[in-house]
Design brief:
This protein is mainly α and about 90 residues long. It is built from four helices and no strands. The chain has one domain (about 10-60, about 70-90). The relative contact order is 0.18.
Length: about 90
């Protein structure tokens, strides 16, 4: 069987709006990097904040409109950054 070309993040996000299971591919692509980014900044909160990042991304996926066919990574990174900032300010996740 021939390898299928990998779908872009933009393709996956468009598809996830009507086929929610596809969102798992976005999670698999970007969660490890988001986790490492958070772990460098708040090791004790990294797991919880990663989970919350993708929870918020899931609930707002219909509002995500890719500007180009590039990576969706800046979107969950922005969510993670905001959650980290809020958590540090409130001293809780």
């Amino acid at each position: 069987m021939a390898d299928r070309p990998e779908k872009s993040d933009a393709d996956l996000m468009r598809e996830a709006k009507v086929r929610p299971r596809v969102f798992g591919e976005i999670f698999e692509r970007h969660a490890p990097t988001i986790y490492q980014w958070l772990k460098r900044r708040a090791p004790e909160l990294a797991s919880d904040l990663t989970a919350e990042t993708f929870s918020q991304a899931w609930f707002t996926r219909r509002g995500f409109h890719p500007e180009s066919e590039g990576s969706a990574f800046p979107w969950p990174l922005g969510i993670a950054r905001n959650l980290l900032r809020q958590s540090m300010r409130k001293k809780r996740v």
